Hints:
Number of helices: 3
Number of domains: 1
Shape: globular
Strand content: 25-35%
Amino acid sequence: MTNFRTAALSLLVLLLAFASACTDQPRSGSTISNRFPTYSGYHYRPNVLLEVQIFNARTSKWDGRAVMTSAGTPTYTDPCGVSWYPWQVTVSLPRYVTTGPYWQPTGSWLMTRVAESLGDAPLASFGLSSNTCISKFECGTDAIANCGDPTGLIVISCSGSGANCR
């Protein structure tokens, strides 16, 4: 019974974290013009440590690239009473190399995400066409739960078939 309770509590915490934080930019499917994109989003708690991570195909693990903290004061409180704390960071992505562990040689793309507490559950992410879905909801947690990707996966490609990210 204890294992069931522990598993249920863990699932509840994961779902709460998913529905309460997101990466708004870049959107999955975006094309970046250089290797220094700005990542931004919102969290329902102040001063939360977050990390931008890139998937390493050689190790099958997420490698950290940049650390930031959500703001200490909210910039918006939605109609449901949830206060939202912004975060933002400019990330130095690895140079585009077709034989490296990050950039995929076909299509010059890589997989990124933002995770809370240096490696815990990823923040929800959105795709390029998410705005129509998001606009249907007044409350941020509803928009995240109904329109966000719980894996937090953000697939981005580099313009110029990777040449602009070398």
